Structures are given as C-alpha cells and as structure tokens.
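Our working data are protein records whose layout never changes between entries. The record below serves as our worked example for the rest of this section:
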Amino acid sequence: MNATYERAGYNETKTEILSIVKYLGEATTDKISELTGKRYENISVLCLLYHRQGLLSRHRLPGSNAYVYAVSERGIDRLNWLKQEEETEIDDEDIPYN
C-alpha cells in the first residue's frame, strides 16, 4: 500500500467520524463504532487523537468511564476542508495522456 492510499484512507475515516459526531451533536466511542462498523478499540484511539488535535472536545458521562465527543470549531473547519478536498480530487484515469 503506498503512502497516498494510506493517507486517503486515514482522511476518509477522519471525515466519517467527524461527520457522524457533527450530525449527532455528540457521541460515545461505542456509538461511533456501531455506526462506522469499525472496532471500538480503533475508534477509541482515533477519537483520542482527534481530541488531542483539537478536532473533538470530550467529557465523561456521569458515573461512567465513557467519553462523549463533540466536534469543535477547529473540527468543523477541518471537516469542511476535507470535504472540499474530496470534491476536487482528480483520478489518474481522468487525465488525458498524449
């Protein structure tokens, strides 16, 4: 797998997670895992990473160890940028060769 493909997959997952949390308003890692079909452990690590990047805010559920995540302003800006990049991507097949 080349670096470009790996980065595209990473950004697709980031877009998916940020979109879900934005749509729901806030969500636990359990809910995000359920909706994406990805393993809880993977979602948990990614949500922590996005929190540290300032893309998600979080707080603990009362009486629980579970975190509830919400998209921050920075996260909304990043999501808009990622979606804009998605729309402007050009496939190699679309480029005419002489």
Notes: Helices lie at 3-24, 29-36, 40-52, 73-88. Residues 3-88 form a domain with the Arc Repressor Mutant, subunit A fold (CATH 1.10.10.10). Residues 1-7 have pLDDT under 50 and may be disordered.
